[in-house]
Specification:
5 helices, 10-stranded antiparallel sheet, alpha+beta
């Protein structure tokens, strides 16, 4: 689904589709600056001799488990435009790179899949991204699209409500019960607590989701293990390990932080506000017409 963000009014019909899609993200100027700025540059200036404010401790529920409820936003480093580090250029968004394993920050993708990702990044393939049609982003992409999420902890569950009008209901201490032939956009998730860390295992994906707008991919064989580790009352360390032997040569892991936000989620009317889709369709149809075999 398309997040409710301001869009430029003057978008020409002949502009490359991928450029148009990325142009939306430029309104998040402050976020982009944070992606590429050194950590020291992001630190607030303190008066000499003033003590740094100590983060509030982790809040607890009545049963002693961490209380991670509230509105959060991922410091996703531009992962919705590429999981690996990219310098950007022109209207191409820079990305910090969120791959923490392998240590070199490179996805261990098979050659056939790399070639498919390169094709998906072309302007005429922008129409094929399911989120362009307001379908859900899948896992782990739902966690780093540039829009907030609200976490709830009713008894026996963790529920994640995404502003882009999707949700995950995660039973705690349960077991996977879906048969293998039942496949879902968000997968089938079950959770457990390991000390103060919430561990969520998901499988039974349908293999139709994209990992981001540049087309990095997963298949129906994808499984994901997520770890939500609260650092303090306002910060959660997030890790997701993806295993997909159809696409990748080995499991890989991404990592970033979820930061507590003030306020509440907005109502996002994706279909009513989807201004990009007609342009993306025009670009795709024009490409197919030019390349049609006689």
């Amino acid at each position: 689904m398309v997040s409710t963000v301001a869009r430029e009014e003057a978008v020409t019909m002949n502009a490359p589709a991928l450029v148009r899609r990325r142009r939306r993200a430029l309104v998040l100027t402050a976020a982009v600056v944070l992606l590429v700025a050194p950590v020291d540059a992001q630190a607030p200036t303190q008066t000499p001799g003033a003590a740094a404010k100590k983060p509030a401790p982790i809040k607890r529920l009545a049963d002693g488990k961490p209380d991670i409820q509230g509105l959060f936003m991922a410091d996703g480093g531009g992962a919705n435009y590429g999981l690996e580090r990219r310098t950007g250029g022109g209207l191409n968004n820079p990305t910090r790179g969120v791959v923490v394993d392998p240590p070199d920050g490179t996805l261990p993708i098979q050659q056939w899949a790399r070639e498919e990702v390169e094709r998906r990044a072309r302007p005429e393939r922008g129409y094929d991204d399911p989120t362009a049609h307001c379908l859900v982003a899948g896992v782990p992409r739902s966690m780093y699209v540039p829009s907030p999420m609200h976490i709830l902890q009713p008894p026996g569950y963790v529920v994640i409500l995404h502003e882009r009008m999707s949700w995950r209901i995660i039973p705690i201490g349960g077991k996977h019960t879906l048969p293998d032939h039942v496949r879902l956009w968000q997968g089938d998730s079950v959770g457990r607590w390991e000390g103060d860390t919430l561990v969520v295992e998901s499988k039974n994906f349908n293999g139709k989701t994209w990992l981001n707008e540049v087309g990095e991919m997963v298949s129906h064989a994808e499984t994901v293990v997520e770890r939500f580790q609260p650092i303090d009352a306002n910060t959660i360390e997030y890790r997701a390990t993806v295993t997909d032997p159809v696409v990748y040569t080995r499991p890989w892991t991404i990592g970033f932080r979820l930061n507590r936000q003030e306020g509440e989620m907005l109502e996002v009317a994706c279909l009513e506000d989807d201004q990009d889709l007609p342009h993306l369709k025009d670009v795709k149809e024009e490409f197919e017409k030019k390349n049609a075999k006689p």
